[in-house]
From TrEMBL:
It comes from the Bacteria. The chain crosses the membrane at residues 12-30, 42-59, 71-90. This is DUF4405 domain-containing protein. Keywords: Membrane, Transmembrane, Transmembrane helix. It comes from Cereibacter changlensis.
Length: 164
């Protein structure tokens, strides 16, 4: 490993881990600016690179750890802790922030049901969708299905529906 990478792997792990910890706690407790979400996702992904360099640098000691019970117990406990979040709860639905889940549920309705919520007639909403490139073969078709068929980004179509 080049000396510069050798010298900076652990300090970057430490710095990025601290940023990930602070942003993760802020997200968990729903405090701080909205930028914490992107910060947490992107910098946690960036943390992978110095982690791999750290593993490379410390490969022999790591192999030594793998021969002893504490590392195996820690890895097994960590895997089980992560697996708990993947157990089906019977309330399977789209994940994410509540406002996005709500928007997705709204889009499962046809234009006639959505138009009044936007202070539009069904014809006006259909025209907005058509202008954006979303065609409704049948007025009873859920808007979400028409958006998927169009291949357009949902965010773009939602903005058009709102007249933005």
């Amino acid at each position: 490993m080049p000396p510069i990478l050798n010298r900076y792997a652990t300090p970057f792990i430490t710095g990025l881990f601290l940023v990930s910890t602070v942003s993760g706690l802020a997200l968990f407790f729903h405090i701080g600016p909205s930028g914490f979400h992107g910060m947490h996702e992107w910098l946690s992904l960036l943390l992978i690179l110095p982690f791999v360099l750290h593993l490379w640098k410390n490969w022999r000691p790591l192999l030594g750890y793998l021969k002893h019970r504490p590392m195996l117990v820690a890895l097994a406990a960590s895997t089980l802790a992560g697996a708990v979040f993947l157990i089906p709860t019977g309330q399977e639905s789209a994940g994410g922030p509540p406002q996005l889940v709500f928007a997705h549920r709204l889009l499962d309705n046809p234009v006639a049901d959505l138009a009044p919520l936007l202070d539009l007639t069904p014809e006006a909403l259909t025209a907005r969708l058509a202008a954006e490139g979303v065609t409704l073969a049948n007025p009873a078709t859920p808007v979400a299905e028409a958006i998927r068929t169009s291949g357009l980004p949902e965010r773009q179509v939602l903005a058009a529906m709102l007249g933005r």
